Every structure is written in structure tokens, then in C-alpha cells.
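Input record (Table S2, row 222):
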Amino acid sequence: MLGAPGAGKGTQAALLAERLGMPHVASGDLFRDHIKRGTDLGKKVKKFMDAGALVPDDVTIAMVSDRLTQPDSKEGVILDGFPRTRAQAEALDKMLAKKGGSVAAALYIDVDREELIKRLSGRWVCSEQSDHVYHEVAKPPKTAGICDIDGAPLIQRDDDKAETIRARMEKQLPPMFEVVDHYADRGVLNTVEGDKPMDAVTIALLHCVNAPAVSRSSKPAA
Ligand code: AP5
Ligand code: MG
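Output record (magnesium ion complex):
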């Protein structure tokens, strides 16, 4: 899942993971979990995230590579936010080739910069699970300030401050476009218009991975 900060990668990856029965592996969520647990890795990466910069490739690749050795990853995963440099994309290709696999589809969610700012500044996330994501206008929780899923308080992410949002765009978009080119060159890039409502984006993404838009368990309309 590729896209600028705020494009909707986390929102859509969680839905796709549920629909396709695959784990949602988000590099940003893995880093935030390390920071929360106070691990050495968490201490190392916090300054990069606070500055809106990318975490160095060697650290990021090692963390994701380790996650992909977990048994639940055997049949595939939805990667969110990784790779986001050409070096990471090449490392992922090698990692997967060793297991006899490859990137089946690179899904690029394309969103206008003005819309990205609105999304990030109105975002609230669960304090327990950072992949429970809300927006004060587009996806408000049922009870203000409380996560619908686990009842934990909602918080704003540290890197959603205006000046950090600007830094994330400036520092992270150029390498992301190199990753987009990497997958275009390999013929697996799918670009989806991300300015649409969430449901429409989900349907477009499911179409890209040849999955039915309606879950098998849902009843046909009367
Ligand atoms: P990460 O957590 O990956 O942040 P990001 O890429 O900046 O992306 P976001 O999580 O902010 O946005 P999103 O695309 O997931 O959007 P969301 O679904 O939440 O990374 C954080 C940091 O970790 C990085 O800055 C970097 O320091 C480090 N890092 C992570 N991975 C790294 C890597 N590979 N290499 C190096 N460093 C790395 O949606 C946003 C909002 O919009 C929500 O409020 C949502 O409700 C709303 N929304 C979603 N879709 C729609 C829609 N269709 N219409 C209206 N609103 C919508
Ligand atoms: Mg995210």
C-alpha cells in the first residue's frame, strides 16, 4: 500500500486485511509500538519520526524483515508504509524472492495535497491500537473521544502537528515516488483515486487485487 502521509493507507489496509484474511503489517505502527514499549529500537527511531523524517533504511528493513518471519505472514501480508525508498523496495524484492514470492500488487492511493492536510489535521487514533483510525468529519467515532472498537480514549498523533506534517511531505514524498516508479517498471503498479469516499476507494482497491467487492458472507439485497 503506497501513498503520501494521510492518503488512507492505514484505513484501507485494515479493511483489505480483514477482507482478504491477511495480516496488516504497517511499519509506522510497528515503530509506534516500539516507542510505546520503550525498546532500544523505539528510542533510536523516535527522533526521526518526531522530525517528520524517514527512519534509516537498515533499521526499517531489519524490523520489517523480522516481522515477515512470523508464521502468520506465510500466505502473504498487506504491507502499509513499507517500502518507501528504492533501497527498501529492492530489499523487499530480495527478501520475498528467497521465500519464492514477490510483490503481487503495489496499490498507490493518489490524493491531492490540500486533502491530505485536512485528513491529517482531523485524524484521531485509538490510544491502544494505532490502526483504529477516525476522522472528525469523514469518520467520527460513535462517542466523541472514544474508540468504537475497544473503548480506549482517542488521541492525536505527535507527528500530526502542522509543522511536522509539512516536514513529512517535503522529506518523504520524493523517495515515495521512486518506489512508485520501481513498481511501475515491474508492471505491478495500480493507481487508485484516493480523493473519493472511503467505500469507493475500498471497492477500487479490491478490484485491483481481483477480490469481490461484496463479502461472501453478506446477504444479497432483497
Ligand atoms: P506512518 O505511520 O506510515 O505514517 P504516514 O505514511 O505518514 O501515513 P499516515 O499513517 O499518516 O497516513 P495513512 O495513509 O495511513 O492515512 P490514514 O488511513 O490514517 O509512518 C509514521 C512515521 O514512521 C514516518 O513519518 C517515518 O518517520 C516512520 N516510518 C514509517 N514507515 C517507514 C519506512 N518504511 N521507512 C522509513 N521510515 C518509516 O488516514 C488519514 C485520515 O484520513 C484519517 O483520519 C482517516 O479517517 C481519513 N481518511 C482516510 N480515507 C479517507 C477518505 N477516503 N475520505 C476522507 N477521509 C479519509
Ligand atoms: Mg497510517
